[in-house]
Amino acid sequence: MRRIRVWTIGALALASAGCGAGPFGREEARPVVVAATGEPSSLLPPLAVETVARDIGDLVFERLADLAPGAAPIDSTAYRPRLASRWERLDSLTWRFRLRPGARWADGRPVTAADVVFSFEAFADSLLDSPARPYLAGRVRALAEDSGTVRISFREAYPEQLFDATYHVRVIPRHVWGAIPRDRWAADTAVAHLAGSGPYEVTEWKRGQFVRLRARPGATTAVRAVVWRFAADPDAALNLVLGHEADLMELVGPAANADRVAADPALRVIRYPSAAYGFLGFNLARRAGSRAAPALADRATRRALAMAVDRAALARAVFGPGTAVPPGPMSRLLWIWSDSIRTLPYDTAAAVEALERAGWRLGRDLVRRRGGVPLGFDILVPATSPTRRDLALGLQEAWRRVGARVTVTAVDFPVFQERLRRGQFDAYIGAWLDEPTPRGLADQWTRAGWDGLNYGHYANPAFDSLLARAAVAPTPAEAARLYRAAMDTLNADAPAIFLYSPAQAAAVSRRLEGVTINPYEWLSGLPSWTLR
Q1: Which pLDDT band holds residue 25 (cuts at 50, 70, 90)?
Q2: Distance between alpha carbon 160 and the CA centroid of its chain, in Å?
Q3: I need a surface site. Which of 18, 29, 387, 413 has the fewest CB within 10 A?
Q4: Does residue 2 or residue 360 have the better pLDDT?
Q5: C-alpha angle with apex 490: 499 to 488, nearest 5 degrees?
Q6: Residue 26 pLDDT more than 80?
Q7: In whole angstroms, what is the distance from residue 281 CA to residue 391 CA?
């Protein structure tokens, strides 16, 4: 992250830019300012990897359609028109999309089906290596039928075709980027090349300081200009808000920060559910060079350890009120969340009994042993995350009470990632960010994910089968039943303890009204907000 620079004349220039008469009066002279941690490396959608890059892109570039927040991706009625005004299924492998009449790029050129085809090819290109490439390359193909109609075909039939046709790709102009070799895209810094079809256009990007957007002519929005100011860290971003130099901040952090925002009469806190969930994952298998504790390969021992943890109390202690305890590997935004999913109860008496049945006997030193081997292991956490460390310490204390000797090791984040990849841990505190589809669960928790994100090497053929069947179920009801049965199976094996799904707190200036937040794309509703 770049060091934030001192704002003097630059800040005044921002405040005065755009002055003049207009339909929204004096407010046009004062942009809505967003305080962001870090700066994007690129705003071009196939290369946008940082959250702030996607936030800006949501207002500049468009998908063919948008999925309603919290809806099931296989529900074809849950999609809203965006660049496409309507669509239809032609057969089990093909959809047809009609582009919005009159859609134009910020430079005035019309948006065509050729732009859509070009965009799908770019997102699937291995040279650009977009995060969406695994979902598109060799699986999805776009073809222009005429200038306003595009046909998208799939290699195989599956229920989430409409999701893959709309969610991953933000459409970019072929007449701009088709003339530039793709190996030069990342180095291209021309703001004029960031022409989108959305309600805003990029007018200025001062590296290390800010990006400025303005509403395009004809855009029906009260917010005529938006500026992202880049801070070096979350504390610096919060200070911009508390100093009234910024109007918005996505996540203010700990409860004490939210209290500071709420105490300012010019600001308010808006709480909304996070797309993240956190867990403690066990290392179930010994690998070359790994540190897996033999006890953790034992299902009965893991179940007992899970029952010894008061997950709700731990989550509230670390994250505060409003934190939910997941019924499995999911945030509360994921549409398969259900209180009917079976989880192991918090019951220390049952935990002790289960440990005794598993052969763990309590010694005079209050540590359990089996065959002379103590019940002990280590929890790995990244040193950059105080909350993960606090969770680990809370688990350490809970397990001390039932006779387990647990240590906590904090390492730099790159070391943390490398040790996970190599299996050099006993247990770790992890966190994942959900997308609207549960398909990512296969990468994290099935046998197929051993070379990917399933660091603990959990494997259960019954779970894998249920998850695979859920992914091809034809209706939301049938898919939900299978996903929840898969969660029951996973929880019974206790390869992990699912600890929290937090509520987020955004700081919002009171001069903004009608603020609604989509947790997956928190600023996407900004064009409909109003100004006091």
Answers
A1: very low
A2: 19
A3: 413
A4: 360
A5: 95
A6: no
A7: 13
d(CA 257, CA 406): 32
Query: Model confidence over 249-284: pLDDT tens digits?
Result: 999 988 889 999 999 999 999 999 888 899 999 999
Give me the DSSP letters along 224-259. Answer: -EEEEEEESSHHHHHHHHHTTS-SEES---SHHHHH
Give the helix/strand (H/E) hosting 392: helix 386-400
- Using CB atoms within 10 Å of the CB of residue 122, give its burial: 0 to 12 exposed, 13 to 18 middle, 19+ buried: buried
DSSP 518: B
Whole-number Å distance between alpha carbons of 494 and 329: 11
As given in the structure block, the two tokens for residue 242 are 């508390």
The mean per-residue pLDDT over the stretch 446-450 comes to 95
Q: List, in sequence order, every residue forming a beta bridge with 202; answer none if it has no partner.
A: 213
pLDDT band with cut points at 50, 70 and 90 for residue 15: very low
Residue 206's alpha-carbon distances to 198, 217, 229, 390, 434, in angstroms, are 22, 23, 10, 38, 32
- Return the number of other C-beta atoms located less than 10 Å from residue 139's C-beta: 15
**How many Å is the Cα radius of gyration of the chain?**
25
- 211 pLDDT higher than 50: yes
Answer yes or no: is pLDDT of 7 > 60.
no
Cα 273 to its chain centre, rounded Å, is: 12
Residue-wise DSSP of 158-219: -TTHHHHHHSS--B--HHHHTTS-GGGTTT---GGG---SSSEEEEEEETTTEEEEEEPTT-
Number of H helices, E strands in the chain: 16, 23
Q: Calculate the alpha carbon distances from 34 to 250, 294, 318 in Å.
A: 8, 49, 27
Q: What is the DSSP string of 262-329?
A: HTSTTEEEEEEE-SEEEEEEE--S--TT----GGGG-HHHHHHHHHT--HHHHHHHHH-TTPBPPSSS
Residue 411, both tokens? 């390492």
361 phi and psi, to 5 degrees? -105, 135
Backbone angles phi, psi at 236, to 5 degrees: -65, -40
* Integer CA distances (angstroms), 314 to 274, 320, 350, in order: 18, 9, 19
Rounded-to-integer distance, Cα 460 and Cα 493, Å: 9
Check if the beta carbon of residue 170 is closer than 8 Å to that of residue 62: yes
> What b-and-e string marks burial along 185-219, b requiring 16 or more CB atoms within 10 Å of the CB?
beeeeeeebbbbbbbbbbbebeeebbbbbbbbeee
All domains of the chain in start order, with CATH: 9-60+198-273+505-531 (3.40.190.10), 65-175 (3.90.76.10), 276-501 (3.10.105.10)
Give the Cβ contact number of residue 273 at 10 Å: 20
pLDDT at 512 over 50: yes
Residue whose tokens read 């509360």: 332
